[in-house]
Amino acid sequence: MSSESALIIIIAGGSASGKSTIVSRFVELTGAAHISHDRYYLDAPDPKGYDFDHPDALDTVALIADVVALKAGREVLLPVYDFASHKRTPEAEGLKPSPIIVVEGILVLAEARLAALADLSVFVEAPEEVRLNRRIARDVAERGRSPQGVRAQFEATVKPNHDRFVQPSKVVADLVLDGTRPPDVSVAELMSRAGLSPG
Question: Would you report the helix, strand and coil content of the chain in percent, each value rounded to 5?
Fold first, then answer.
């Protein structure tokens, strides 16, 4: 694969906007390499009250370096973040170059140097009430959280950082997808805009 053949798609959107579901289906259909910004969280020595939704919580410089390397046709070692301990693990996971590379996360279009690497930038949008209700359902079912705790975190850090960093990054998106629509509809629109055919 030549260094110029990789298509870089960067997909942002608020927490629980539906972007991960869209990305998962897109990767399934295209075989694209997928990098989640969540892998690049820095260690949180005291997770209580830690602001995981602020750009400073993530090592975006390392993510940029990995995307550049993949674009150049080099394999990279992706960090593995353990959300139970809120720390990086000693292990890493190899990712080989691919004709299509998808980078996904709430803040991936908020950093100009990362956004500039995109051949296609996408923002997945959903109303605040929808995002909050989805986040409560997810965190209660998958992370053992209480609805009250999820709502408190949303008000304390998720919403303020969404309004400050995430939502403004929509302006650089080439394509805005409605995260309340059936995922397959959004995936079809994404594939069409990327010039890709199903199957």
Answer: 45, 20, 35
Q: What is the pLDDT of residues 58-100, one digit of tens each?
A: 999 999 999 999 999 999 999 999 887 889 999 999 999 999 9
Return the SS3 of 105: coil
Q: Which residues pair with 135 in a beta bridge?
A: none
pTM: 0.92
**Structural tokens at position 98:** 């691919």
Residue 67, CA atoms < 13 Å, CB-side half-sphere: 28
Question: H or E stretch including 34?
Answer: strand 33-36
Rounded to whole angstroms, the Cα distance separating 148 from 136 reads 9
* H-state helical runs in the chain: 19-30, 60-71, 112-115, 128-143, 147-153, 159-161, 183-193
**Interatomic CA distance for residues 162 and 171, integer angstroms:** 14
Determine if residue 34 is left, alpha or beta; phi over 0 gives left, psi from -120 to 50 gives alpha, anything else beta.
beta
Structure token pair of residue 45: 């020595």
Q: How far apart are CA 151 and CA 144, in angstroms?
A: 14
Residue range 7-193 forms a domain whose CATH class is alpha beta
